[in-house]
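Deliverable D4.2, example record:
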Amino acid sequence: MTKQNVLRSYLNWEFLRRKERNDNYSLRAFAMSMEIDPTFLSRLMKGERAFTKKTVNRICTHLKTSLDEIETFVENLQLNDMGVYKLSDIEFSPVSKWYFFAILDLFSLKNFQSNINWIAESLGLSLSETSDALDVLEQNEMISRSESPWTVNKKSTNWVNVRTTSAIRKDYQKQVTEKAKEALDKVDYTNRESVSLTVAASKSLVPEIKERIKKFMNELRVLTKEHQSFDEVYQLQIAYFPLSQIRNKEVNNE
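Output generated by the structure prediction step:
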């Protein structure tokens, strides 16, 4: 990861951390805390402007850190014991179509071919969609195509901010849900699973259920990695939500 991307990732993480503490915290306030123009800061965080030495020194001074500390922090933040790189919403934005992650996992298949036509056919994409997607993945340092075979730099991803969601992440989940609906008709039942559960439950259990779902997904990730002979890319879609909309009202028993 280049120093430019390290700095961008750190600013995105720091901004999200502050916003978690205060929903009203704005990018303008973040910029003011470092004495940087808000528009300039926004472009820095989106990768549209490069960090100069003067800007880096200003950021480090006001955030009371150093470039070395930032690089170490981002390295630890991005890669945990499960080998999962973490993306902020701004970093996720250019790769927010369902097929970007599918392409990354195609690289792991035993019969993978470093060929745009093969990738397009495997995922049902057009050649232009595939070509554009590969360019974006390369620009964001997620793959390397300088040599053959092509290689993946970031095989698995997750969110930096797991406490809240966003419009762009909701849109991604909607895309995946549509793919799940398509699979009901297009994929033979022997090669998929679709189950559901309707149950009365307490709202207080939601945090624990989320943790159990997270644990299950990690276990599934470990299971799939143990069997190295990969021949397909699969998608797991889990949703837990209330069907009823019960409002807490006092019951008059008189």
